[in-house]
From TrEMBL:
InterPro entries given in the database record: FAD-dep_OxRdtase_2_FAD-bd (IPR003953), FAD-oxidoreductase_2 (IPR050315), FAD/NAD-bd_sf (IPR036188), Succ_DH/fumarate_Rdtase_cat_sf (IPR027477)
Organism: Mycolicibacterium chlorophenolicum
Enzymatic class: oxidoreductase
SUPFAM superfamilies: FAD/NAD(P)-binding domain (SSF51905), Succinate dehydrogenase/fumarate reductase flavoprotein, catalytic domain (SSF56425)
Database matches in Pfam families: FAD_binding_2
The entry's keywords: FAD, Flavoprotein, Oxidoreductase
Protein name: 3-oxo-5-alpha-steroid 4-dehydrogenase
Amino acid sequence: MLTGTRYDVVVVGFGAAGAAAAIEAADNGARVLVLDRGYGGGATALSGGIVYAGGGTEEQHAGGYRDSADNMFAYLRREVGDAVSEATLRRFCEQSPAMIGWLKAHGVPFRGGQVSSYKTSYPTDSYYLYYSGNEKAHPYADHAQPAPRGHRVVAPGMSSGRVLFERLRASAVSKGVTVLPLARVHELITDEDGAVIGVRYRAMPLGHPDVRRHSALTKATGKVGNWLPGLVKGVVGRTERLWERAAEPGEAYAGAVVLAAGGFIHNREWMRQYAPAFLGISPLGTAGDDGAGIALGVDGGGYTAKMGNVTAWRFLAPPSAFLEGLSVGVDGRRIANEDLYGATHGDVMMRCFGGAGWVVYDARTWRKVRAQIGDQTQLFQRLQLLHLLTVGHERATSIEGLAAKNGIDPTGLRRTVDEYNAGILSGAGDPAHKDPEIAPVLGRGPYYSINISADSSLFYPIPGLTLGGLVVDEDTGAVKRRAGGVVPGLYAAGRNAVGICSNSYVSGLSIADCLFSGRRAGASAAARMGAISACSSTLSDEKHAEIATGRLTSVRRPRSRRSTPGSPGRN
Ligand SMILES: Cc1cc2nc3c(=O)[nH]c(=O)nc-3n(C[C@H](O)[C@H](O)[C@H](O)COP(=O)(O)OP(=O)(O)OC[C@H]3O[C@@H](n4cnc5c(N)ncnc54)[C@H](O)[C@@H]3O)c2cc1C
């Protein structure tokens, strides 16, 4: 049995939410232990490192962009819906410039300035600020003044997420936070009153001879596994067996536990149960996104919501000319204005068009797509474009011919094209309200189409991640009980919890929510420990002494952790 010192706060999971919680708890005087089933980083380190922020950040000012907390709120209210209360969303918007300041104070670099003149889902290395959501698209632009809020961490290519996490890791460690990697938490320890006082885990000792191999295999499969999980399944299984053979049980005690163990996109059973429409998408994240943290919270007395909400990323741009086509379903009906954020457009396709869709282009736009690649794309985007522009498209001399090649209803497609062209030519505009600057007449053939369906190709997957989780008190991050009140000593953050992005994700909103909710949980957890130390009214002196020494004897063993809780809650 691995035993350690007793801590004030134990954090389960070391991604953006866990790091924010650990730093905030340490800043509030807590002794913090972080346990991570991997080496730390999670989906955060694999991410694009976009942080959604506004309300007048220094980076927005540097580019001459005006924004305010009210304006940001007006936009986000439409994205966020009922995921959090108005008061919480307001606080999120009001604190937004300071959140970027907080990150910078922890060494995370940002750069403001002008945004690119074209729409993109991820900027090239010339830009670190951009319109990362639906700000300029119908109907969102009718409700708030568009402002660029995608703050990308300064780092080349797709390394922004890694830099974001490593800076936070370094800061946490410098504050005395203890980090135990390869430690998988499987059970909460509660006292007879149901208060959470620690965790049980299994960890691969760092001195074990297989750790080097484990580390090498993990590194080799991380990024590839993120985009093409099927390709590295065997190696991931080998890595898992190395861990399984070496892992030893351990316990850690604390006054509070923060669950920050990510989402559940890799839990196929839960996906089948909660989000069957999204089973065809490619899971985005790490093997740790199996819902373990959420299951721990449910076992501890919490409940879940928004579990059926998944963000499915079908980005068309870059190149931006890809937005100039018409997206249609199998019946030829228009899916939506193509300048919507890729996941918003993808959500309409997944929910209302059975996950099947195509985008149709005329010859002029197809040429334009090719011409823009050099200026508008990153290397990782070019690999996918290579597929689309070589074998991954259909071509026909007529609209009806293109419909036939794809199995689209030709009458429906013809109607959509005619209505669209009539709107543009008459000056009435696109019936779907696409930005006029990227809504040219669909002119002469040959015509081209790309298949944007969920299962279109191994080389053109729709990746996605889950947005639901444990219901928390929005002032403290404490895990709520369905019957009322909270589970004493238990907090949740990031994709373990319902948060700002739980209804709708736009680029940067998940990490911004992880930081917001992680800091909130860390501060509350530290405050709870402070309250326990200052006043023994919550615990008897005897029990306090036992907790303080890690020798608590009267621990009620909770039900053993289930990988799939029977009925985690309302969704
Ligand atoms: C390729 C990619 C690009 C993305 N780009 C962006 C972006 O630019 N902006 C944005 O906002 N969002 C982005 N996202 C989404 C975003 O990265 C995640 O939603 C977010 O980072 C989740 O953070 P988290 O702290 O909740 O979880 P994670 O960062 O996944 O951290 C959870 C940690 O918990 C650990 N863990 C799991 N189970 C256990 C257990 N039982 N015991 C101990 N530890 C455990 C895991 O090993 C992991 O390290 C992207 C995601 C991906 C995959």
